[in-house]
Write a structure and sequence with these properties.
The complex is a heterodimer.
Chain A: E1 3-5
Chain B: E1 14-16, E2 22-24, H1 30-39, E3 43-55, E4 61-68, E5 73-80, E6 85-87, E7 91-94, H2 97-104, E8 109-110, E9 116-122
Parallel strand pairs in B: 7-8
Antiparallel strand pairs in B: 1-2, 3-4, 3-9, 4-5, 6-7
The chains are: A mainly beta, B mainly beta.
Chain lengths: 19, 126
Amino acid sequence: VPVFPWHSLVPFLAPTQSD
Amino acid sequence: PSSALPSYFMKGSIIQLADGELKRVEDLRTEDFLQSAEVSKELKIDSSTVERIDSSRTPDAVIIQFSVGEHKVQVCVEVLVEYPFFVFGQGWSSCCPDRTTQLLALSCAKLSVGDVCISLTLKSLR
């Protein structure tokens, strides 16, 4: 049975910050 | 189109939290994500508020505009209507919960404008 890491389930919404 | 979502969204999938604990995807709670991110050196949880949901030119897809993090950065993602997001305090939610349940057997609420989703960013963007 495959086991998936928790962070696979969360979208990576990476803002490009400029500060 | 072959619009298969990743298999980890399928009901019954085994998910490993940062502390090693195993849970089924349908049993995950907000705290599981928050606690796992706390352990992580690289990732942190950000709040992403749904600002708009627009139809896409791609069949069965939508374009969701999020306001991400404390800086309220606007981020758009195009996803299939059945793609589940985890809403703080509510759980799995998608634009078309019936379809998500049909395809993945995962119970979902309806994702709406104003919902605050769990998302990830890097702890340090430097």
